[in-house]
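Quick start: what a row looks like.
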Amino acid sequence: MEFNIKSGSPEKQRVACVVVGVYETRKLSFAADLLDRISNGFITDVLKRGDMDGKLGTTLVLHSVPHTLCDRVMLVGLGKERDFRAKEYREAIRASVKALSATQSNEVVSYLSELHVKKHDVEWMVEQATVVTLDALYRFDKFKSRQDDVREPRKMTLAVPRRSDLTDGERGLLRGQAIAAGMKLAKDLANAPGNVCTPSYLAEAARDMALAFGAEAEVMGPQQLDELKMHSFLSVAKGSDEEARFVVLKHFGAKDKNDRPIVLVGKGITFDSGGISLKPGEGMDEMKYDMGGAAAVLGAFRAAVEMKLPLNLICVVATCENMPSGRALKPGDIVTSMSGQTIEVLNTDAEGRLVLCDALTYVERFNPATVVDVATLTGACVVALGHIATGLYSNQDGLAKELWAAGEEVGDRAWHMPLWDEYQELLKSPFADMANIGGRAGGSVSAACFLSRFAKAYDWAHLDIAGTAWRGGKDKGATGRPVPMLVQFLQDRADIALGNVVRRGRPRREVVETVDDDAD
């Protein structure tokens, strides 16, 4: 789809469809009111007949509105004006896109991007409209013999209130397209079946993406991992016929290549059977999504490089399968991690932490400013937070606040979970330095505590996306989360590096309080 930014009156748009908003109790948005006036009250008359009341997410398509140049006018319900915030804005955009798919509208001008959302500027409005539009249009039918017949506009123009807003609008569009492309990469990788998206496939896809954007890429196999003494990681991989891969991507965007990098680490279990601690058969097909963390960090890396963020950024993916076989890791086995710490494996289905711990040790060599790992780590996190919020853990409260705020800014929400020393007691083992599980109670917390033991050398955060990386049911598929949160976090760090203010729903020129990394 082609996107454009434009400033102009809605009645002058010679296109297939113009999209405007209506609040509850039939109050017209500014653009809808202009159309109503030029058409001598045509829209008001339609609304008075009860065809629409402005309820959030409802739509109504009007044809041949008098004195306008467009073929159709789509009315989109915005809900109550006093309650119209960021969440409602995204819902209205999504509803309009879904409704457009049912029309023959090849060219569309949307005036929803002109709406007022408290504390948010033009750049944000356009960025979010772009991300939501492309997310709503996403389809994964690569493996169908006949692809779904889905109509979508050929050209989408997002309106801004004034000509002076065009530059900010263009900036928001470019950001939105980069974020949406990163989300698409993450969703495409995660939605691919396990017999296609193997560790070697994932590694090559990562390498190809990085090289296409001029980044550095390195892929290591079992022999190199053995030389690095990543025996915890390799213990998970040995039950499968598919070899493990370890991917390192590097983007040097800062003025000084010696600036300490931000490191993203992704768990890439391309299929998780549970190993010897075999999972129940029902729903096991969804375990192809256990590489959702890897997909997300690759998507965030792609977006950051496309946006040319002035940061030094490293992306690390540890990928393998977790399968049962005569060679597989067994409950009761003891493995030695790259750090030298020993681990008693009580459950082979708690394999993600065995993979990530070696990756977290490996990245010490980069002297990172910050490390964020992303993983579909625990079902316990789904029990705690459902499918709404990502679990957020950190050894620095200031870093946790940054990630939380980034997620709030873009509607990719997380919740700060405890990482208290008392929980470390759950990991005690009589035979090794630690066990790989801490029991059912506080399972997501004890998993994060396990990882924290390998991340003491730097500021670190852990995102448990087990509940947010994919959806089940009739809308089954990867969500692309937490790509938006990660990209916003990286953008905020880039702004700080450049001496700009961090955007929190306000124009960047305004002075806002920044987060203190050393906050308690």
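That is the whole record. The first strand starts at residue 2 and ends at 6. The CA atoms of residues 233 and 355 lie 4 Å apart.
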